[in-house]
Design a protein that fits this description.
There is one protein chain. Helices cover 83% and strands 0% of the residues. By secondary structure, it is mainly α. It has one domain.
């Protein structure tokens, strides 16, 4: 169950990271409130997950899911660069996440 909470926490991190863009410097109330609520939910799920998952593994996977998802959505939603080097680097992060999961105690 802890791994499920960790994945949910990572997905919520993607949500709040993208949400930050739409807050326009916290000047838009709706996106700002939604972003803050998503942050709280993400941290809550992470806290539940790391009760049973080592903190180094849990935190790295959480940030990895968030980084990969945010980069992909940045490409899709915000027109950010999809250069081969950028895609390759995202792939390296994914390999790191997989490696941490495989070697988790």
């Amino acid at each position: 169950m802890s791994w499920i909470f960790l994945v949910i926490a990572g997905l919520l991190e993607i949500g709040w990271a993208i949400g930050l863009k739409y807050t326009e410097g916290w000047s838009r109330v709706g996106p700002s409130v939604l972003t803050i609520l998503t942050m709280i939910a993400s941290f809550y799920c992470l806290a539940i997950a790391i009760k049973d998952i080592p903190i180094g593994t849990g935190y790295a996977i959480w940030t990895g899911i968030g980084a990969v998802g945010t980069a992909i959505l940045g490409i899709i939603l915000l027109g950010e660069s999809a250069s081969p080097m950028r895609i390759a680097c995202i792939g390296v992060v994914i390999l790191g996440i997989i490696g941490l999961k495989i070697t988790a105690a």
